[in-house]
Amino acid sequence: MKIVYDGVSFSYPSKTALKNVSCEISPGSVALVVGHNGSGKSTFLKLMNGILKPTQGDVRLEDVNTRDKRVSELARYCALSFQNPDDQLFASTVMKELRFGSENIMGDGSLVDAVSGILHLEDYLQMNPLSLTYALRRLVAIGGSMAMDTPILALDEPTSGLSQREKAYLGSLISHSKSLKKTVVIVTHDLNFLLPFADDILMLSHGEVRYFGGRDNLFDRNDVRQLMAGCGVRYPIYARMSATLGAGKYCYEGKELIDELIKRKAGAAQRTNGQHQLEGA
User: Which of 178, 203, 218, 270 has the smallest number of Cβ neighbours within 10 A?
Assistant: First the structure.
């Protein structure tokens, strides 16, 4: 499902959070929303599912204008997992939590088993989610949103508090969402982990768009480092290592970088051998 922000501004009583934001997120893509604290990232997500309504402009989910729908109606289109899982969890068991959203939008619950398996929640299904560790509570909250089986999945800082193993579970869930052609929008500071999944990146600073477009196009810019620094975003480690080690292209995860370096070394060795053969002819 396509998501369109058309000249969107939003103001709280004390400040303006977003200023004239325009972007179009393609159906079935993964978009990362990044920026410093207070840049408007969480506000961006809450406008998407109707918790907030634009002060100016329009947010459309395909042809549905969020101004015209209640949050309960928009829940059929967009499932949002909050930054703090404790703001989301309330059911008496993990299983009830995973099923609640789907049942209340008249879903069939067909993703519940898949989600519990991908996130490795099977051993906790009969436990009260609020009795679990923070990381597990976060996974349950994310799982409940995914299990709603909406066309759009919105995640606010989903890697916060997760171990590397738990991040791997989340990565599998994002990959599964992509395989189901869902549009996934993720607010994050964790580019090192999430860049491999991204199609597009939206960079915000003080409520304004500094960049929106393809991931690779961003790193092809000569001013990418300055742009990220101006938005309070750390330059991702594997992209930095790609340039330092002469990988020949930007890599976004460790395995990709290693494979590219091995391939380039093998190519260089083959060229050297060929030169030696010519010299000895």
Answer: 270
Spatial CA neighbour of 194 closest among 217, 220, 214, 175:
175
**Which amino acid, 255?**
K
- Which amino acid is present at 210? R
pLDDT at 276: 52
Q: Which helix (H) or strand (E) holds 267?
A: helix 254-280
pLDDT band at 254 (very low <50, low <70, confident <90, very high): confident
- What are 14-31's pLDDT values in tens digits? 999 999 999 999 999 999
Residues 6+ apart with CB under 8 A from 30: 174, 177, 178, 183, 184, 185, 186, 197, 198, 199, 200
Q: Based on the number of CB atoms within 10 Å of its own CB, is 185 exposed (0-12), middle (13-18) or buried (19 or more)? A: buried
Helix (H, G, I), strand (E, B) or coil at 212: strand
Q: Maximum distance among all alpha carbons in the chain?
A: 81
pTM beyond 0.90, yes or no? yes
Distance CA 229, CA 217 (A): 17
Instruction: Note the pLDDT tens digit of each residue in 109-162.
Output: 889 999 999 999 999 999 999 999 999 999 999 999 999 999 999 999 999 999
Token pair 């998501």 is at which residue? 3
Quick one: which of 119, 33, 253 has its CA closest to 111?
A: 119
